[in-house]
Amino acid sequence: MAAKPAGGKPPAIVIGLDCVTGLQTARILADHRVPVIGLAKNPDHFACRTKAVQRVLQADTSGPGLIQALEELGPGLGEKAVLFPCTDMSVALLSRHRERLSPWYHLALPDPEVVETLMDKVRFSAFAQEAGLPVPKTFLLRRRAEAEEAAHQLRYPCLLKPPMKTPAWERNTKAKVFRVESGEELLALYDRASQWAEELVVQEWVEGPESNLYSCNCYFDRHSQPLVTFIAKKLRQWPPRVGTSSLGLEVRNDQVLAISLALFRRVGYHGLGYVEVKQDSRTGEYFIIEPNIGRPTGRSAIAEGGGVELLYTMYADLVGLPLPTNRQQRYRGTKWIYLRQDTRAAFHAWRRGELSLAEWWRSWQGPKRYAVLSWRDPAPFLYSLRHDLQGILPRSRRGDPPKVVGAPERRVAP
Q1: Residue 285, Cβ neighbours under 10 Å: how many?
Q2: Phi and psi angles of residue 359, each rounded to the nearest 5 degrees, phi first
Q3: What CATH number should be reported for the domain whose range is 1-107+378-414?
Q4: Is the fold of 1-107+378-414 the same as that of 137-204?
Q5: I need a surface site. Which of 57, 133, 156, 253 has the fewest CB within 10 A?
Q6: Who wins on pLDDT, 333 or 140?
Q7: At residue 89, does pLDDT exceed 50?
Q8: Using CA atoms, how far apart are residues 333 and 250, in angstroms rounded to an integer?
Q9: Is the peptide bond before 11 cis (omega within 30 degrees of 0)?
Q10: Which has the closest alpha carbon to 337: 242, 234, 204?
């Protein structure tokens, strides 16, 4: 058996290091002196330049190769490691193969049936309506005739998306959801997107600005008790209206918290959870937009920035270490900023006359946590910046890429 990892703590395996969520997760765990190993489909991604990990292994994190890679890695770890999947596809794979991995890994997930229900947008909508949870009107589209029927019944605008993102969807579009303004547009988009997914979901839009979008990040233990909860809201997102958060703010909203707790308690939940809830500006009602389960999210770091140790609580609970004392939200007004995306979102709003330069500046003030920028771990930000600049400069002027001092050696598994 391999020697116990340095630092005396079992390792954490961050699956999907090659994304902002994976980068943030690795940094948070490393700050707690947890040895971290990163798995990445693209080890050349800027996030894989972090010094928060001991090594980076290449693996197909969205396909069967992930399970094989973990089975090869497990016996040499010395003790059970904690899995931190950072994408929906990796969560689904780990859930379906949990028994194969159990000799070497801790995995915080509810029963497989619960995982499938909460991850599949169609099944979740049906479950939520039966349970009396607030969700927008939703239709499942398997044939064009169903799309035509929905087009006549829906109130516009609405959203079109797959029940669950698949490799085929991601190969064809970077959008996780499309906003549709009319029945004609819905049918045209259905004809195109139905080539990427066997089923599609169309859901009525909940009216209101980006600041009406709230989220609850949480962790439930094996007994379905919430050990940590943290409420935040969006201030801006990119792309506008249907994108992901670029600027978030921690807030207090007891109604959002109550809705989130009711959802997870209803299913006997275990693991990291995230619920996005939107308040309808016309009626004041709150609607569940979607849950994300079993993984950190891009906004997990806002909890850590606000003094709430969300991810380390899960780690400590699974390996039997004392739970951190900082598990209660104190409402410090902490912000989370993805500088690259929020610059784009703010510039877009400024060009439309929706944001003044003074308001833009004020929106970045106060205690904050950055998505990529870290003075103690600068290489990911510098590589990301280099990539952005290469996209702007004419190809003939780019020359050789600059060398970033201090980037960690990347060990890539064959």
Answers
A1: 12
A2: -65, -40
A3: 3.40.50.720
A4: no
A5: 156
A6: 333
A7: yes
A8: 5
A9: no
A10: 234
Residue 337 is inside which H or E element, if any? strand 335-337
Q: List the domain boundaries for the chain.
A: 1-107+378-414, 137-204, 210-370
**pLDDT exceeds 50 at position 403:** no
Q: Which CATH number is correct for 137-204, 3.30.1490.20, 3.20.20.140, 3.30.70.2740, 3.10.20.740?
A: 3.30.1490.20
User: In the prediction, which pLDDT does 384 show?
Assistant: 94
CATH superfamily of 210-370: ATP-grasp fold, B domain (3.30.470.20)
CA dist., res. 288 & res. 275, Å (int) = 7
Q: Which residues contact 83 (CB under 8 A, 6 or more apart)?
A: 12, 13, 15, 70, 94, 101, 105, 106, 107
Q: In terms of pTM, does the model score above 0.70?
A: yes
Instruction: Count other C-beta atoms under 10 Å from residue 171's C-beta.
Output: 8
Taking CA atoms, 37 is separated from 12, 176, 376, in Å, by 6, 28, 19
Contact status, residue 219 vs residue 273, Cβ threshold 8 Å: yes
Predicted confidence (pLDDT) per residue in 290-342, tens digit: 999 999 998 899 999 999 999 999 999 999 999 999 999 999 999 999 999 99
pLDDT digits (tens, 9 = 90+) for 387-396: 888 766 554 4
Contact call for residues 305 and 367 (beta carbons, < 8 A): yes
Return the closest-CA partner of residue 90 out of 19, 150, 35: 19
The whole-angstrom separation of Cα 246 and Cα 225 is 30
What are the phi and psi torsion angles at 57 (to 5°)?
Answer: -115, 135
**Whole-number pLDDT of residue 76:** 96
What is the predicted pLDDT for the residue at 412? 39
Please report the pLDDT score of residue 392 as a whole number: 61
Q: Quick one: pLDDT at residue 401?
A: 39
DSSP notation for 149-209? HHHHHPPSSEEEE-SS--HHHHHH-S-S-EEE-SHHHHHHHHHHHTTT-S-EEEEEPPPS-
pLDDT tens by residue, 90-122: 999 999 999 999 999 999 999 999 999 999 888
